[in-house]
Design goal:
Elements lengths: L3 E2 L27 H9 L15 H6 L4 H6 L22 E3 L6 E3 H4 L3 H7 L4 E7 L2 E4 L3 H7 L8 E3 L21 H9 L23 H16 L6 E7 L10 E5 L2 E7 L2 H9 L3 H6 L2 E7 L3 H4 L1 H11 L2
Parallel strand pairs: 7-10
Antiparallel strand pairs: 1-2, 2-3, 4-5, 4-6, 8-9
Helix pairs in contact: 9-12
Length: 314
Amino acid sequence: MAYTKNTAKKSNGGSVPHVLLKLSSTQISGVDRQRRKALTASKVTPVGGGDFEKRDAHHKALTTAKAGDLEKRSGHNEYCILCRDGADSYGDNTLFMCTLCPRVVCRLCLQLPPDIETKVLQEDVSFCSNKYNTVVHDACICCHIKMEPGSAYFGFYNANCLLVLDRFLPINGALKVSDPFEFAHAFLKPYYAGDGIKYLEVYYDIGTDAKLCPYHSKIWQIIKGLKNSFVWEHVIIGMSTHTNDNYGDPFTGYEDDNSKVYVSTPVNDFLEIILKPWQSIINSAQESYLWMLCCGSLVTNLDSFHGLQEAVVW
């Protein structure tokens, strides 16, 4: 059967465990040692959990999965990858969980009517992708596009790998094909000759101390190539991430022992780690800019906002 969960409606952020990374512990930051120690030891609910005990009677009647299977999926995201929202109750919405990644997709974005939802929640039905007759259970629309680009997304198959629905799923929502940074580059590129403007997209996961060196090594290789091309007069660094609702700390990546649980760290430490390898490029530029697309708690939390100010004014 399709594995599901529910999450209270919310538009951004979340509460995640805090970490204090060794690289940033050599200097006094805007967040004092005592608070940082308290943050490191704090016990909070990680993003991706799900209280499976509190489903209503209707959900219990439709879901009979083993407890062990549910536990394995407790690290999933709390919000639909398409609409970025959860649901107040099972009656409002249902989140279908992908087993290939932490993403979830909701019933509303799949446009499932109540009678069809009841049908796809039966034991012999899987929320999956069917490639070359090999069923990958519980695959979200993003994983489907990655594995089967250009093919119709039916989403639900029975135990014999046969389609449950007689039509493909009309996804209600637009998948992200670019972001503001990429869009800005595409807009500006015609005004520059040749490689006079360059766009680089760098993914980071610095959730543990062990991940810091690989990140820095990767960035230094990128910078080596950039320095061989030009002396870059203008540098724009854009960052997009979630922030902790309570403290405004940016999400830094995943816990080492559970790749589906996010962690966060104080914003000044986060920026020190992320930007330090780029310092030589920034220093050589005539102008440099920092764009941060983050949740509002980054600036509404006083400590976090002061940490941001301290980090960018050096």
